[in-house]
Design brief:
With about 270 residues, this protein is an alpha+beta fold. The chain contains ten helices and eleven strands.
């Protein structure tokens, strides 16, 4: 029963996972608990709480069903996430390997102790400027200056130019300002993210870019190209490859948070 409950909680956090990934979290670090997890998942499938919709190589990818999400919510096991999907559509559409790599990133960075502090596919949008993108994973572990850390994963499927555009979108998001103050007064402008999203943060959250899905020497080439493509960006950006992250090797800093430069780069919004 405990393995089933732990599996439900994990899938509620990371959305999709393989048996091997779940065993990393659910069983003791020095044990191979895959057989226990397989039995638990078979039972959850019989109960209609979990299902598979595709594979990562030979490994079935598991996700919760809507009934499984409801059971988790009814048990008050996780913070409320009313807009969270099950991940089933993404797996059926062929994006399962990307989601599995996101789960690998979460496990490599945060391990089992901070699992419930993660959310996946978190939307960031500013309607006024037509900007909308989903962050692959967000870790809600406050630091002295920021309440979350942002994670973007490239599984080797997008062009180098598109990857760079996605990173620059975070600077556009960080640079947008909004008016605050009663109409008819001079008022002031403030960063949109600081007034409407991360209200307890002093600095825009750091973006972590993780590169996966290719041989390691190709990932290193991709990292070097991204470094050149985002040169001069005015937000904090760190990049690593998934293999290096799994080995506990350090990140590369390729962007530095610079609010003053962002304010110069993005014009003040039009007067009200």
């Amino acid at each position: 029963m405990k393995v089933r409950a732990d599996a439900l909680r994990m899938l509620g956090c990371v959305r999709i996972a393989t048996v091997q990934q779940m065993a990393q979290v659910i069983t003791a670090e020095d044990k191979d608990g895959r057989s226990y997890v397989r039995r638990a998942m078979s039972k959850l499938a019989e109960l209609g709480l979990a299902e598979t919709n595709g594979k990562d190589g030979k490994h079935p990818i598991w996700n919760l069903t809507p009934a499984g999400q409801k059971a988790l919510a009814d048990g008050n096991e996780l913070p409320s996430r009313p807009k969270a999907g099950t991940g089933a559509k993404a797996v059926r559409a062929g994006f399962g390997p990307h989601g599995v790599a996101v789960t690998d990133t979460i496990l490599a960075y945060g391990n089992r102790r901070s699992l419930t502090d993660w959310q996946v596919e978190v939307n960031h949008a500013i309607k006024e400027i037509g900007l909308s993108f989903n962050t692959d994973a967000v870790l809600a572990q406050p630091t002295a200056t920021s309440e979350v850390r942002l994670f973007e994963l490239d599984n080797g499927t997008m062009s180098q130019a598109r990857l760079a555009r996605e990173v620059w979108d975070y600077e556009r998001y960080a640079g947008h300002r909004v008016w605050e103050g009663a109409r008819g007064t001079i008022g002031r402008t403030f960063p949109f993210w600081q007034r409407h999203r991360y209200t307890r943060s002093e600095r825009f959250p750091r973006l972590h870019v993780v590169l996966a899905g290719k041989e390691e020497h190709l990932l290193d080439n991709r990292r070097q190209a991204l470094t050149a493509d985002v040169k001069g960006i005015a937000i904090a950006v760190w990049v690593n490859t998934l293999p290096r992250l799994q080995r506990g090797e350090p990140w590369y800093e390729i962007g530095v948070d610079d609010p003053d430069r962002r304010r110069q780069r993005y014009p003040e919004p039009a007067g009200r």
